[in-house]
Amino acid sequence: MPLVDNFTKLLIRGLLAGLIAGILAGGVAFVLGEPHVNAAIAIEEANSAAGETAGHSHGDEEAPLVSRDGQRAGLFLATSLAGLALGAIFAVVANYARRITAMSGPLLAMAIALGGWLAIEAVPFFKYPANPPAVGDPDTINQRTLLWLATVILGLLAVTAAAAAAKAVSAHEYLSVRVYLSVRVAAPVAAFLVIVVIGYVSLPTINEVGDDFPATLLWEFRLSSLATQATLWLVLGLAFAFLTERATKDAEVAKKFALR
Fold this sequence. Notes:
- It is a single chain.
- With 260 residues, the chain is mostly helical.
- Helix content is 77%, strand content 0%.
- The longest helix is centred in the first third of the chain and has 47 residues, at 7-53.
- The protein is flat, with a radius of gyration of 23 Å.
């Protein structure tokens, strides 16, 4: 059954789903990511101490504005706020998407979650993967931020192109033109990959990882980051789908009682 609720209900549903997703993503980040962050900070501090020992001290370093304990406590707050923001955006997208598709509410929720993860997380990640604290030149942070935003835009364009291709292929079904399942799958995938490949080739490559940084730690950190974001989007889609199904069931039950 397609989404029939008004926007206010969709927004509340998105916020609730986003909050749940943010809390669970925070748990994944804490369990999987924090050990790697601590290890990277230890390497950074060891390198700094070695530089001071070699006579490269620049005086007393300022203490961080937020301690590590404070950062750990704020992790769940940050992921929860991110989940709420994504949940609100999710509801807006769902409200618009239901006007151009006949997909059921739960299936539409999962499709939006997949598209969001691909556009905002997967496409940027595989071009400019996340790096731990000890990696990266502070002087290039603005450039790296702009390039990351460019890959997000690239991902959104690729997902939009894939959705347009899927809709174009589906339109042939309404015209009684036989379209093979392989074509229905290949068309959006091809549209997505063409946009992404062109973007990847056009954007510059950045590699600021030192040769002395442990490769295992680097990839474990990146995988934990990817797992955190995957959890956020997967739970967001599942929670929104579940709440949609529950609302539909409740409406059906209420309608049956009203007819008695």
